[in-house]
Amino acid sequence: MALLDILKFPDPRLRKKCKPVDKVTDELREFAANMLETMYHYRGIGLAAAQVNRQIRFLVADTRPKDERGRYDYDEMTEFESAIEQPLMIFNPVIVKKEGKTTFDEGCLSVPTYYETVERFEYIEVEGLNLNGEKFTIKTDGLLSICIQHEIDHLDGKLFIDRLSPIKANRLKAKIKKMGYPDLTKEAEKDEEVVP
Ligand code: ZN
Questions:
Q1: In angstroms, what is the span from residue 107 Cα to ligand 1's centroid?
Q2: What letters, b where the CB count within 10 A reaches 16 and e where it falls short, cover 160-170?
Q3: Which whole number is the average pLDDT over 50-79?
Q4: Ligand 1 centre and the CA of 108: distance in Å?
C-alpha cells in the first residue's frame, strides 16, 4: 500500500468534476486501499478520490468515534450509523433521499486545520457500488451523513468553503492566503481530530 498526495485548496484540480466508474477492477480495489491508508494516516474521517487527483466518483469514510483507549465507541453513534459497516467505501455514490437539516464544524484534509460551521441534510439514503461492484444502499444520519455529503461535494468539484456565506468564505480564503497550511505530517502525530 502507499500513501497518496492530497491536493490542497486552492489547487484548481480540486474543482474538476469526477466521472462514475464503469467497473470495479482490481486496480481500483488497490487504489481504494491506498485511499483508506492515506485517510487514516492524516487522521481524516473521509476522503474523496478528487482529493488525491483522481477524477472518479469514489469515497472512503470511517466516522466511528474512539474512546480514550483508542477502541471504537459504538455508544457514541446513532442507531443508523452503528448499523453500517465501516470503513465505508462507495463507488458512484448517489444521494437518493435527503431529509432535515443539521450543522457541524467541518474541516477538510484539502483545507487542513481550518474549520467552519456548515449546514447539511440530517438524514440521507445513498446508493452506490461496493468493492465487489455490487449495488448497495445505506441509510444514515449523524456524522457519517455529514461526512458522505462533504465527500460527494468533492466529487462535484465543491469544497465546504463554497457552502459558507460570501463574507465568511472570503474571510477564510484571506486567512489561508496569509497563514498557509501547517506541516500535515507533524499534525498527524498530534491528537486525533475530526477532519472530513
Ligand atoms: Zn474535504
A1: 7
A2: bbebbeeeebe
A3: 92
A4: 4
- Out of 151, 189, 192, 193, the active site residue is 151
Overall fold of domain 12-194: Peptide Deformylase (3.90.45)
Quick one: DSSP state of residue 162? G
Task: Please check whether residue 18 is in contact with residue 55, taking contact to mean a CB–CB distance below 8 angstroms.
Answer: yes
CA 167 remoteness from chain centre: 24
Q: Say how many Å lie between the CA of residue 196 and the centre of ligand 1.
A: 5
Q: Is the dihedral of CA 7, 12, 13, 17 positive or negative?
A: positive
Q: From the CA of 58, how far away is ligand 1's center (Å)? A: 13
Active-site residue flag, 187: no
In the chain, domain spans: 12-194
151-172 pLDDT, tens per residue? 999 999 999 999 999 999 999 9
**Per-residue model confidence as pLDDT tens digits over 67-78:** 888 888 888 899
Burial of 159 by CB count in 10 Å (0-12 exposed, 13-18 middle, 19+ buried)? buried
